[in-house]
Write a structure and sequence with these properties.
Layout: H1 29-52, H2 63-68, H3 77-85, H4 89-95, H5 98-119, H6 123-135, H7 138-158
Helix pairs in contact: 1-3, 1-5, 3-4, 3-5
């Protein structure tokens, strides 16, 4: 039994790793912006490293595929991004449609966050909250999950 429950609640619990914010999420605005910027930067580094070493075959990329010998739902996303950067739209979509979504996110998110910081706004954080409210609906979540599973089956069928 958790010892925090034995005493009246006074606003924090020393064992509680994450506290819900006033808007009910586990992510603060600053935390979201930092995570998004770091994720985009990591994506750019990964994309650059992958495109420079694509022909060498040194790193296969997907740990899921290396362990289970089937592609994950995201398999092909890096190759799709590289194809998109080279102007091969059709090849990019055929490799993995997630690549186009990633490209849009990697282009828009840093600029959006920068605009929010410059203007002192929180539109990106409000968008994050809106998306959270959409995906908490069971029907929307099931549709999204179904699309991910279809993409995963397609990746397995293509033998990525």
């Amino acid at each position: 039994m958790d010892y925090c429950r034995l005493v009246p609640y006074h606003g924090s619990c020393p064992r509680q790793k994450y506290a819900k914010t006033s808007n009910g999420t586990l992510m603060t605005k600053k935390g979201l912006y930092m995570l998004s910027v770091v994720a985009c930067a990591a994506g750019y580094v990964w994309l650059a490293a992958s495109s420079m070493h694509a022909e060498e075959g040194v790193w296969r990329g997907c740990l899921f595929k290396q362990f289970f010998h089937i592609p994950c739902p995201a398999c092909g996303s890096t190759r799709a991004l590289i194809a998109l950067c080279q102007g091969h739209w059709k090849e990019s979509l055929l490799l993995n449609p997630n690549g186009v979504l990633l490209a849009v996110l990697m282009l828009l998110v840093p600029g959006w966050i920068l605009l929010d910081i410059i203007k002192g706004k929180d539109s990106f954080f409000r968008f994050y909250l809106w998306v959270g409210r959409i995906f908490i609906r069971k029907r929307i979540f099931i549709i999204f999950l179904f699309l991910v599973l279809i993409n995963w089956c397609w990746n397995i069928y293509k033998g990525l």
